[in-house]
Amino acid sequence: MRYYLIIGDPPPALLDAMPTIEATLGLKCLGIIKEMASYRKRLLGHYPELILVHLDQATMSIDDILRTIGHDFGKIPHYIGLTSSPAKGFEAFKSGFLDVILAPYTREGLLSTFSNYKYTYEASSIFCIEEYYDFHYINLHNVVFIQADNYTTDFIMKDGSLVHNFKNLKHTFPLLPKHFQKINRGQVINSFYVFKINMGRKELFLRHHGKPLKYTRKYKTNISTIKKWVQKTPITIY
């Protein structure tokens, strides 16, 4: 799942467009923060890759907003501004905003902006494991599978190493790309590493991992999805 955040009161056209944005573009709103003074990273739950800022209502300078939010996350979000002022829009562009939407706002214009964003800026293959302000970066292309370990998760890597994540699987799984599929309650596999499926024994065989993994009946429908992703495996995986 890919997430976005809104800072400032959203215009009516944006409120009208939000159900379509979430249903058809696969972007989910983490919330609406009316002013930067009420911004609290811990309340978000997930990392927003895109942040919409209503620049006409901002209680902080653009640079201060970028500095405050950029300090909190292991990855830098993308920003799109909303404003009735071309001068503020130009300032936002100079500060690094991807785009600025000028009033009057229309539902069609907002949907077009979101659609362009989703297909221009693909989800990053870099995953950030965070503990307080300690950020550990791993390349998801090198993750063979992920395994729940009580209230934490372990990333099993292509080279056989293990990277410990201090968040549980329920929190971690929604942040992964769609080629990561659950096969049982405690394991998520990278479909690109599957080279054999035994339907009779309910087993999956993964490259760079010696033992087969069992999938359960509850997740049987995920096997069809895994088969589709196997056919799209990048040659760099091998």
Tell me about this structure.
25% of the residues are buried. By secondary structure, the chain is α/β, with parallel strands linked by helices. The model has no long low-confidence stretch (mean pLDDT 91). Helices cover 26% and strands 32% of the residues. It folds into two domains: 2-120, Response regulator (Rossmann fold), CATH 3.40.50.2300; 126-237, LytTr DNA-binding domain (OB fold (Dihydrolipoamide Acetyltransferase, E2P), Beta Barrel). Strands 2-1-3-4-5 form a five-stranded parallel β-sheet, sandwiched between helices. This is LytTR family transcriptional regulator DNA-binding domain-containing protein.
Helix count? 6
Low-confidence stretches: none
> CATH superfamily assignment of the largest domain?
Response regulator
**CATH topology description of the largest domain:** Rossmann fold
Give the beta-strand count: 15
Radius of gyration: 20 Å
Shape: elongated
State the secondary-structure class. Answer: alpha/beta
Output the strand order for the largest sheet. Answer: 2-1-3-4-5
Helix-strand string: EHEEHEHEHEEEEEHEEEEEH
Largest sheet: 5 strands, parallel
CATH class of the largest domain: Alpha Beta
- Ends distance: 26 Å
- Percent of residues in beta strands? 25-35%
Level of helix content? 25-40%
Task: Supply the CATH architecture of the largest domain.
Answer: 3-Layer(aba) Sandwich
GO molecular function: DNA binding
Pfam family, one: LytTR
InterPro entries: LytTR_DNA-bd_dom
Protein name: LytTR family transcriptional regulator DNA-binding domain-containing protein
